[in-house]
Amino acid sequence: MGQKIEQDLQRFRKIVRGKVKSNLSKYISRGEMIGKKGNDLVSIPIPSINTPQFRYGNKGSGGVGVGEGQPGQPLTQPSEDGDPQAGDQPGGHILEVDLTMEELADILGEELALPRIEPKGKKNVVTEKDKYSSIRNVGPESLRHFKRTYKRALKRQISTGTYNPVDPLVVPIREDKQYRSWKEVQKPDAVACVIYMMDVSGSMTDEQKEIVRIESFWIDTWIKRHYQGVETVYIVHDAQAHEVDEHTFYHTRESGGTKISTAYELANKIMDARFPASEWNVYAFHFSDGDNWGDDNAKCLTLLKETMLPKLNLFGYGQVESPYGSGEFFDHVSELLDEHDNVVATKVPDRDAILGSIKEFLKTGR
Length: 366
Prior knowledge:
By secondary structure, the protein is of the alpha/beta class. It folds into three domains: about 10-50 and about 95-115, no CATH class; about 125-185, no CATH class; about 190-360, von Willebrand factor, type A domain (Rossmann fold, 3-Layer(aba) Sandwich). Helices cover about 35% and strands about 20% of the residues. The strands form three sheets. Strands 7-6-5-8-9-10 form a six-stranded mixed sheet. It has a two-stranded antiparallel ribbon with strand order 1-2. The chain has a two-stranded antiparallel ribbon with strand order 3-4. The longest helix has 21 residues, at about 1-20. The mean pLDDT is about 80.
């Protein structure tokens, strides 16, 4: 019975996984998953999944198969005239299912055909892990495999004729006992840091910040799938840059000019002080509407080429379209694409473009 239940559960999870995968673009653009995020699970609303079965309509309700139909006759039961009232029939339901962050990452990777990230730095520091993956005939009682031991004892008693169905007592002997065993496996101890930078000048609207929030969530989900530990840094900037917490990052709105170089300078200082490239896999993502103080563009490119890019696994620039920004900075970042394979630049004009932007950022597998 237990095995049958497990098979049904796995079949149900496979169906759910297919539903989530087929509607991934919708969930991403609406941000439905983020607000329901727990410590380890994300609750996802999906249409109710019912077991296929025959359904019969009400007698005399009309429609095909009940007497002769007339041209234009509706196939459903006609509504009654009168004032609207509370209904007495069941409606459709929404089912919430819980998926782990690892399952979400796997679904994202399958849908976008993302390659696995290849860590650098501390990937060469290997730790020994014990993995229980085999069975032995000897071992400590604390590791006894009760199910396997019981089955061996039951088979022995049936084969020797000592099993009594009226009094189904199964007593294992020494030869019946099975024990879980382990083997040491080498596991890379890789760590990563993700630095998010965002322009919070007056030209960045709340909708644009929501796009950044959704995209950052999915980037986080994929990167954390490949590392044992991930640290996150948030930087906001207008004409000056500041390190802030996550809530401030997504809810701050300021005014004034824009100097992108201030964010890059601060990110570089944080990397040198807390996340040296020799030990950390560092990812930096910058979101802006592309509006920058003209004389600052050259300084930004110099900072990227000479100080930041040699330390980064990946630098991603996402330009969120704004009715107020000029969008010129995208062209300047694009100058680096041919010379540096760890630079990716994308445009995110609206929520529907989030999925494509994520794929561009993460398809390198760096």
